[in-house]
Amino acid sequence: MGRFKNNKKSRVIGKPIAKKNQEDVSHVTGDKIPKSFVFSRMKLAGPVKQLQMDLRKLMLPYTALSLKEKKRNTLRDFLNVSGPMGVTHFLMLSKTASSLSLRVARTPQGPTLTFKIHQYSLASDIAQSQLRPRCPQDLFKSPPLIVLSGFGSQELHLKLATIMFQNIFPAIDINTVKLSTCQRLVLLNYNKDTKLIDFRHYSIRLQPVGVSRRIRKFVQNHQVPDLRNLQDVSDFVTKAGYGSESEGDEEAATVTLSSDLGRVNKGATKSAVKLQEIGPRMTMQLVKVEEGLCTGGIIFSEYEDVDGKKEKLKKKQDEEEEEDSEEEGEEGSEEDGEDMDEDFED
């Protein structure tokens, strides 16, 4: 008996990105909230596969965390699924024998920015290097804030990179934003000398100024402290090393809160802003900008002189037009000569 062929088309499997309690339209801009797919069109090695998962967590909550791609999936398959789900951006990892790259594209018509990743560290690597890694359960319930540094250039490719990164996360209104939603920060720093971009991902933590670490832990956890080796309750507060803030509040940025945040940080009081890296970490370089979605004309290329090519092409076209006009002029003069000869014969 012959085997039946599987006529099912290759498709991308992904759960709906927006949950029931999430909005689809930004109240700040009035546009759709940006959503993303993070995927690869090839089989990735273990560390690079984990980097892809770290990027998906970074893009939460407006991304498909459990997106399932197959080897036979094409870019058209992802594009067909992205429309009904309201996906606005693609982040595509690709690995060759010599390099690792990340493409960031706007759907459905582009542009596409290609970054070469020179170095990277996974979120697990960052956590292992820290004495007290921090990752609360509700850390990824809100999108991160985006901070761009060093992108204030008039060059077209840097302007496009600025617009792309600014629009990949939802916009916020500083007058109405809730402090409890500002828990993460994505920082991109561009070095104009090396042309490298440092990509960092931090968690934001607020600590009241002048309150010891022991008191903070007691208020937050509501656990009875161990007083067996102390003479009095006051010793718990005034014990050496814990009576004052030991983490350098004078060096950290301090802000005055407009409202209460948690059990410890109260409104109208000063709190120190602490940033703790949670990963992933990347050092990358913008090497290519295309007009369309992974296709179309090349706006910028780090390894090719795009402007020079355009000038040569324009010069070649001008020369061809001049040759055509000269040929037309010669043909016209020959016809005029023939008409004159006919006149003389008459």
TrEMBL record:
InterPro entries: Brix, PPAN-like. It comes from Arabidopsis thaliana (Mouse-ear cress). Residues 34-295 form the Brix domain. Pfam families: Brix. This is PETER PAN-like protein. Coiled coil: none annotated. One of its GO terms (molecular function) is rRNA binding. The gene is PPAN. GO terms for biological process: rRNA processing. Residues 319-346 have a biased composition (Acidic residues). Residues 307-346 are annotated as: Disordered.
